[in-house]
Amino acid sequence: MSEIYAIEVKTIDGRNIAMSEYEGQVLLIVNTATRCGFAPQFTGLEELYQKYKDQGVAVLGFPCNQFAGQEPGYDAEIASACSLNFGVTFPLFAKVDVNGPNQHPLFRLLKRKKSGFLGSGAIKWNFTKFLVDRKGNVVKRYAPTVKPEKIEADIRKLL
Fold first, then answer.
1. Do the beta carbons of residue 32 and residue 42 sit within 8 Å?
2. What residues sit in the active site (predicted)?
């Protein structure tokens, strides 16, 4: 079993679940922020989710307030903003840190498997995306500027 499936996460409504609930699916894991300039990407992420969820693709959003305070709200406020402003129905999780001493174990693993620009492990901004294959392998990391529609071809290759 891939080590990603042993990690526990908290849903945005407060339930603890194991990532093993997503075993066998292609995952697009994203650190998000509703007040970020890249927030319109929520729409593209939702479109990918709607188009491919029946083929075993899950988009997983992890709100983060580590970049210019662009996600200051509580989990319930974040869920509401994502739904009302962007039509998000893909799974959202409790707010996490993606860098630093309190970083979530999921992001520690993702960064270890796919470092960023020039080998940097740190996540530089909101909407950094990680693509995970059906076996739990982290296959690609995308910069915040990469729009969801540019990831579609890579998702199709993993289906």
1. yes
2. 36
